[in-house]
Each structure stands twice: as structure tokens, then as C-alpha cells.
Amino acid sequence: MHRLISAGIAVLALQVAAAEPVCPWPEAGSQQQRYHQQLSCYDQELVKARRSLEQWEKHHEFALQQHRQRTGRPAALNSYLSARESFKQLKEQHCRWQYQLQLPDVQAGAALYKHCQLQLINQRKVDLESLAAQ
């Protein structure tokens, strides 16, 4: 029961976060200054999100290494490591095509790229958190 409640809270938190833009378009300044402010905000949020995701990735890797040591079966750890690399590639490719759609507006593309990265990282973190609760 506790696991279901934790998973539900995590999903609700993500939905609330999705309803409110993390780095809204600034209201003051020239367009160039606004882009700079927004991109700076995304950079700060990405640092925090990557750090948090990395902690959950290490948590799962450690647990899977212990499982491998106890059982002598490395399959789960190997699959996890492969999935982690696949996620990195997916994140890059998925956000890159969205960036390219905005060209030649490089600044709009950069903002969309960073927003995309932030969304995917946060979703992956929620997924790993919910798996740890099981």
C-alpha cells in the first residue's frame, strides 16, 4: 500500500510541475536578455535534475551489483547499464530533432532543447524513484 501511495505522489508531483513552466518566459528586458535569462534558468535546473538523476542511477546500480554478488547472475545489472546508455541516446536524439525544427532561430531551439532534456530527465528520475519503492 505504501508503495502505491508513494508512486501516486510522485506522479502527482510530476503533473503539478508540468502544469507550471519551470523556466517561464521572462517579462522584462529585450528579447536577447529574455532568452539569456531563460536559458540560464534551464541550465540551473538541468544541473539540479542531472545530479538527482545520477543519485538514483547510482542507487540502482549499487543494488544490482549487490544482487549480482548474492546470486552470481549479472543479467539484471547488464540490462540496467544498457538501458541507462539507451536512455542517454534517446534523450539526445529526441531533443535534437526538436531543436532542429526551430532553426534558424538558434535561441528558441536552445530553449526547447533544454526544456526537452529537463522533462526527460525528470521523468526518468520519477521512474527510478518508483522502482526503488517497490
From TrEMBL:
Top-level taxonomic group: Bacteria
Record keywords: Coiled coil
UniProt entry tagged with the keyword Coiled coil: yes
Coiled-coil parts of chain: 39-66
Stated name of the protein: Lysozyme inhibitor LprI N-terminal domain-containing protein
UniProt source species: Alkalimonas collagenimarina
